[in-house]
Recover the amino acids of this structure.
């Protein structure tokens, strides 16, 4: 096995957004992060990323938790809700501002698109006020590459890495990059296991960890499950919700997607299958592509 050695100090997490029910792509992220943690005797936490109320579906957060319970993915500690942590995010922003590491930006999305799509630092030294402004990190120490447990060194577009990215939006909502770093740091997350669609934001998040003086976790980015047109399985693309009544076949499919070769005789045995997956997790079998075409396959 190439997975890390047994460590009770390992803390992983699953952090869905309550914009709809969990689907097969969600199961890949939830199950793999759970298995990495449990295979090392570590802890696994759940966070609800409910930062953007207009995108949320009423009742989705409770449905997500019921689905995790139905699939036997039991978490440690209390569920963290980002919507209840606004004071914490603002306190960190205030500290960064007092240290001269943020500034207010009045540029619109249309202006940034006209400048080539990446923010050119227009408001950096303008000394603008907070009214109707976004808050940006003054990017002094860009991170251009990081080490991924599955892919090795990953390098990203240097222009993206050097961009002064947004920490709080003009509409007053806290940005994902700010909230996820604060939450993971406060929860003591030692490794972030998530989909390959979040590879690029990783360098921004590392730079924010460093600005905050917090330990940087490890990273493991998984292949995305793609539907027939080659699009990521997602709520926006109408991926079907996971069934709650028979989780074993879905877990069996997810393990197959992750290259774990689950035994055929366990394909309808939920608890034995999950126990097998924990004791037989092999990280080096996970495919290294960033996306895999995966149509729903009926299991008989």
């Amino acid at each position: 096995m190439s997975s890390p050695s047994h460590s009770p100090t390992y803390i992983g997490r699953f952090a869905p957004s309550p914009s709809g029910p969990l689907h097969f792509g969600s199961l890949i992220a939830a199950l793999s992060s759970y298995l990495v943690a449990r295979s090392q005797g570590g802890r696994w936490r759940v966070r609800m990323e409910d930062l953007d109320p207009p995108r949320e579906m009423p009742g989705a957060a409770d449905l997500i938790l019921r689905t995790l319970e139905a699939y036997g993915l039991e978490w440690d500690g209390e569920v963290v809700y980002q919507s209840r942590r606004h004071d914490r995010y603002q306190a960190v922003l205030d500290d960064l501002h007092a240290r001269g590491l943020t500034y207010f930006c009045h540029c619109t999305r249309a202006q940034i698109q006209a400048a080539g799509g990446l923010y050119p630092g227009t408001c950096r030294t303008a000394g603008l006020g907070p009214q109707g402004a976004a808050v940006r990190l003054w990017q002094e120490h860009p991170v251009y590459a990081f080490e991924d447990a599955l892919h090795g060194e990953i390098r990203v577009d240097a222009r993206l890495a050097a961009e002064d990215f947004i920490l709080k939006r003009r509409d007053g909502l806290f940005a994902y990059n700010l909230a996820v770093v604060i939450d993971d740091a406060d929860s003591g997350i030692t490794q972030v296991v998530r989909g390959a669609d979040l590879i690029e934001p990783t360098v921004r998040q590392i730079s924010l960890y460093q600005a905050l003086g917090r330990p940087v976790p490890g990273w493991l980015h998984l292949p995305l499950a793609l539907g027939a047109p080659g699009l990521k399985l997602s709520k926006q693309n109408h991926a079907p919700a996971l069934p709650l009544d028979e989780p074993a076949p879905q877990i069996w499919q997810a393990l197959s997607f992750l290259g774990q070769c689950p035994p055929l005789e366990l394909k309808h045995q939920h608890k034995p299958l999950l126990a097998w997956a924990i004791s037989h997790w092999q990280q080096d079998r996970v495919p290294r592509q960033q996306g895999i075409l995966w149509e729903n396959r009926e299991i008989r």
